[in-house]
Design brief:
By secondary structure, the chain is mainly α. Helices cover 84% and strands 0% of the residues. It has helices at residues 2-11, 16-41, 45-70, 73-83, 85-119, 126-158, 162-187, 189-211, 227-242, 245-258, 264-300, 303-339, 347-360, 364-379, 384-408, 412-440. The radius of gyration is 22 Å and the shape is globular. The model has no long low-confidence stretch (mean pLDDT 90).
């Protein structure tokens, strides 16, 4: 049994299955949430105001906190812990304090400016704008809780405590569902917003509980002049700069699709929902599971282990996502007909969406492989080259999609995306090979 477990760990990194299963649980909870929304509110102004009220605070959280944490924290924390666990935990507390402080200031600004922001939504009537302001202010509290939870999530990843890490999003969605089901009849959409706050508190609470099984203890720290924190800021800035690329890409695709006839935007959005599932269940969790191991290997200067772990991870993700891509291509028509067909979604809509789904299948392995390649670069304390690869990918996407839109119409979107992801993978691989050569030659080492 031990030998079998060891062989399985070589193919499927420990923690990957836990992350995948819980990611699937989060996906399922999202379906339940959407069903509850549809049954409770329908396509109403109240639900429009709710969705709109979450957009700005979530963007602030993503740019100011989440984008910066995901790349540099685990490698720096792991390098520090290699020699001094107390220093690593002091660094973690400083980042936690900073994340809460930055998001609290941003949330305060949004809270105070909420009436002015609400006036920008000229498509809302006066009642809906007033509701938007109330919901926006409620949501500010949730984002502060998320800032703390995201920082603690990186502590859990570094310590390979994946259950508490991945259960948190499920609890968040569960809070939204519970608030809506239990109190919407009495308090309307405000119950959903406060349910989101309760879900954010649960998100944070389970991660606090998870850290109790590590050496990390929560308390304020302000060691911002340390070399580790300066390194964190240096690595954080490129990630923050490149974070809007995905939003820019989606915006470009939407604009392009609007020029291709009625239903094209909807077909693109429906198809992208199918394409992203293998990424969320394989690419993202499998690469996250080996991230602490890669960071520790770099801290040790162990290029052999680094290459072996990364190579197996790349091969596993490539094989599994290629199989998922083939399955999606073959089953695209059946899935679209079964899950979307009927009512006002007629045969022409089914045919168009099926073709987009089938074309999107081509991008799945390329999209998924960007995750372990990026994590590999992050583990070597390099975020600048990953950001550069993302900008190049955006350029390739725009160039290829623009060139193909005339000959193939809406299929230019998935084909351009596949080309951009392939270009990103190639650049990431080239950069990573050079970093590993430098590590083997002793020219690259973890900062003290």
């Amino acid at each position: 049994m031990i030998a079998l477990r060891a062989q399985l760990d070589r193919v499927v990194p420990r923690g990957a299955l836990v992350l995948s299963v819980l990611s699937l649980g989060y996906f399922a909870m999202g379906i339940v949430r959407n069903r509850v929304f549809a049954n409770t509110f329908g396509a109403s102004p109240e639900l429009d105001a709710y969705y709109a009220a979450f957009r700005l605070p979530e963007i602030a959280l993503d740019v100011l906190v989440a984008a910066g944490l995901t790349a540099p924290f685990v490698p720096i924390y792991t390098s520090l812990r290699h020699d001094d666990e107390a220093a690593a935990n002091q660094f973690g507390r400083t980042v936690l304090t900073g994340a809460i402080g930055v998001m609290a200031l941003a949330s305060l600004a949004i809270f105070l400016l909420a009436p002015w922001i609400g006036d920008r939504f000229e498509g809302f009537d006066a009642r809906t704008r007033a509701l938007y302001v109330d919901l926006l202010r409620i949501n500010c509290l949730a984002q502060i809780l998320f800032a703390a939870s995201f920082a603690l999530g990186e502590i859990l990843v570094a310590n390979r405590r994946f259950v508490a890490y991945a259960v948190a999003p499920i609890l968040y969605s569960g809070g939204i569902v519970a608030g809506t089901v239990l109190f919407a009849d009495r308090f309307g959409i405000a119950a959903t917003a406060w349910g989101a706050v309760a879900g954010a508190a649960a998100h944070l609470g389970v991660r606090i509980a998870g850290t109790r099984r590590t050496s990390f203890r929560i308390r304020p720290a302000f060691d911002v002049r340390s070399a580790a924190f300066r390194e964190f800021i240096r690595l954080m800035l490129p990630r923050m700069a490149s974070h809007p690329i995905e939003l820019l890409m989606l915006t470009y695709f939407t604009i392009l699709a609007t020029q291709l006839g009625a239903g094209s935007v909807s077909s693109f959005n429906f198809a992208s929902d199918y394409q992203v599932v293998p990424i969320l269940l394989i690419g993202a969790p499998f690469s996250l599971a080996v991230f602490p191991t890669l960071s520790a290997a770099f801290a040790d200067g162990d290029g052999t282990t680094f290459r072996a772990v990364l190579g197996r991870n790349l091969l596993t993700i490539a094989v599994l996502t290629a199989l998922a891509a083939v399955a999606l291509f073959v089953l695209s028509g059946t899935l679209v007909e079964l899950l979307l067909g009927g009512g006002r979604f007629g045969p022409e809509d089914v045919t168009r969406t099926t073709s987009v789904v089938a074309a999107f299948a081509l991008s799945i392995p390329f999209d998924a492989l960007a995750y372990p390649l990026s994590r590999g670069l992050y583990a070597t304390h390099d975020t600048l080259r990953q950001a550069a690869s993302s900008f190049v990918a955006l350029g390739v996407v725009v160039t290829v999609s623009s060139a193909l839109v005339g000959p193939v119409g809406i299929l230019a979107v998935p084909l351009g995306y596949a080309a951009g992801m392939a270009a990103k993978d190639l650049l990431l691989a080239i950069f990573l090979v050079r970093r590993l050569h430098a590590l083997r030659a002793g020219r690259l080492r973890s900062p003290d």
